[in-house]
Design brief:
Number of domains: 1
Structural class: alpha+beta
Strand order of the largest sheet: 2-1-5
Order of helices and strands: HEEHEEEH
Helix content: 10-25%
Length: about 140
Amino acid sequence: MNAWSPPASNAQLDAMRGGFDNGNGLLASFGIDRVVYVNGSLAARTSVSIPDIGHMTAAQARALAAFDGVVAVVQGGQGNTAALAPSGATATVIQNSLDGQHIQSLTTIDASVDHLARFRSARLGDSLQGALIQSLGH
């Protein structure tokens, strides 16, 4: 038996999926920057930036795909051997056999939208959290 229902209103769709585009356009951007500093000097940087996800270029898509599976290795001192992460994992490996080193590892995730009210739903948060976990090689 087929029951007919009227189409859902924009307000109902807004509550169900976190928002809708009314034709005015929507700008969402995403970037990840991973850096390692040793004694204040940049030792490694891995980053990707997509300034407009809706109009991602082929070069940006390749850069994003290439970010997955990147293993950055930073070694200080003698006798360090990196046991590489499993294939496809994204990781930063820091090995140090020196005393008195100041080592900083920072991961910055920049996600923004021009109409934050359209992204009230937890679904965006879940998607970004999944991307974050994936980027950390977990």
